[in-house]
């Protein structure tokens, strides 16, 4: 029996969706297949990589992917993690369940490196909690 497939969607596929993919793989990779994509991919944000590394998860090998790469594929769960992606995302006719988790964009944070990294840590931790709730449901 194959693992349930989960696709995390965001606009840039640079931080939130990448962190969600990393968390699901870390917490339940033996039970779920995780992927992520963006409506307008811009590349993996180094601060997302740094924040996840602090949590013991390496997402440095991830790459920013365009949503089109997954159109027509079957997913058990399609989860938008930003409001803009929810508004612009096409319907996934093969998705059994769709969810929306609204997280602020840590890439929009201003300030020093430490201040911006703190924004990524905050979102990283919020995403972890949401993934844990998802797994317990």
From TrEMBL:
Keywords: Arsenical resistance
One example of a Gene Ontology biological process annotation: response to arsenic-containing substance
Record Pfam families: LMWPc
UniProt domain Phosphotyrosine protein phosphatase I: residue ranges: 4-137
Keyword field contains Lyase: no
Domain of life: Bacteria
Chain segments annotated as coiled-coil in the UniProt record: none
Protein name, as recorded: Arsenate reductase
The species this protein was found in: Nitrospira tepida
